[in-house]
Design goal:
3-stranded parallel β-sheet; 373 residues; alpha/beta; 10 helices; 27% helix
């Protein structure tokens, strides 16, 4: 009402501005877009402007075991979607942390239909709590959408029976789900413009081949199956979390520029050391290398056992270390092999247990001379 009085006092000069400028002004109003809708009471000139203002709808279910609270939140989402059904542009729509049960399937189908069929959503996120079982299965109609640019699915089963048509998708994140190689290839073939792919706690794929020339960034986190990766056009690769053996050969990632290895290792230390040596050889050609704390620990053990990393032409090196005595051999082994290094970044992170060193029983490491490092 205060805004209405000011506009009327000035002769409503704002209404003389072009729609594009008015829509830009309205897009900066707070409160999730509700203030935008209220501007419709100012005059007939403003009545429908709000429909063209891009808005974001974000819903995060409360962490509770109360079914009544869940049902209340479900109802509130439906009210919001009804409220915004006349909007011409929903820029972002996300729903997270619902503890999914089969009786909620129709509710979730409604959200997916709203995002993929009714609203011009560019960024859609849908994720369920990890304990949800059985998993929600993405409906078949959702695999046909030419407007989505960013899609994130968590704990959501993918099983397209026909072809996938996500031609505008540039970013895809899939988490907490079991897939097959056939499903993964069908999804990738339906995303010809995909640039970034993230697989977080995904299982069931043992061979992943990415032939697209546009897909340049790949992130794999917490992968508990053995995986052979072939991605000759990937430029940035991140492997993080607890991972089994993700095997790559240098010729299979020939375009790689940046490699980020923030891996954690468990048990069978000698096997993990051998795997890390193989992995480091596979990324020896990259210009930018980033290593996490456990990799540095492994390198220290390898250095103390007499292994040396071969010379590399990398320009950028980023190390996350604890700066304890047993980290120095690993740090120095990389500095000595980085003959053309231009930039060195060191992150000091000291709040973690020394798991790997404790697993190393071939002699007392603390008794070894550290002067040369």
């Amino acid at each position: 009402m205060e805004m209405q009085k000011k506009i009327m006092a000035r002769g409503d000069r704002l209404s003389d501005l072009p729609d594009s400028i008015l829509i830009h002004i309205l897009s900066m109003l707070p409160d999730g877009g509700k203030e935008v809708v209220r501007t419709g009471v100012l005059s007939t000139r403003w009545l429908s402007l709000w429909k063209s203002v891009p808005v974001s709808l974000d819903f995060d279910f409360p962490t509770t075991d109360s079914e009544n609270a869940t049902l209340d939140y479900l109802a509130s989402i439906h009210r919001e979607l009804y409220y915004w059904k006349s909007s011409h542009k929903i820029r972002r729509f996300s729903v997270w942390r619902l503890s999914y049960k089969e009786r909620y399937a129709k509710d979730v189908d409604l959200w997916v239909h709203f995002a993929t069929k009714l609203a011009n959503v560019e960024h859609f996120e849908l994720g369920f709590r990890s304990e949800s079982h059985p998993k929600y299965e993405l409906p078949q109609f959702a695999y046909k959408n030419v407007l989505l640019r960013n899609l994130a699915l968590g704990n959501c089963q993918l099983n397209p029976t026909g072809s996938v048509n996500w031609t505008s998708l540039v970013s895809l994140s899939i988490g907490d789900v079991e897939l097959t190689e056939g499903i993964m290839q069908k999804v990738l073939s339906g995303c010809p413009n995909l640039e970034c792919l993230e697989l977080d706690d995904v299982s069931g794929i043992h061979h992943l081949e990415i032939s697209s020339v546009k897909l340049r960034e790949l992130t794999i986190q917490d992968y508990f199956d053995d995986l052979w990766l072939v991605a000759p056009n990937i430029q940035k690769l991140e492997l993080s979390g607890f991972c089994c053996e993700i095997r790559i050969r240098q010729r299979d990632v020939v375009s790689l520029v940046t490699a980020m290895l923030h891996l954690y290792f468990e048990n069978n230390l000698e096997k993990k050391l051998s795997y890390l040596k193989e992995l480091l050889h596979s990324v020896a050609h990259v210009e930018n290398l980033k290593l996490g704390t456990y990799c540095i620990e492994c390198l220290s053990i390898l250095e103390l056992k007499g292994w040396q990393f071969p010379p590399s032409s990398r320009k950028f090196l980023e190390l996350t270390v604890a700066f304890e005595q047993l980290d120095f051999p690993g740090i120095c082994s990389f500095l000595q092999s980085s003959l053309d290094l231009e930039t060195l970044v060191i992150h000091w992170y000291d709040n973690r247990p020394r798991i790997l060193v404790k697993c190393y029983n071939e002699g007392d490491l603390t008794a070894l001379p550290f002067q040369k490092w």
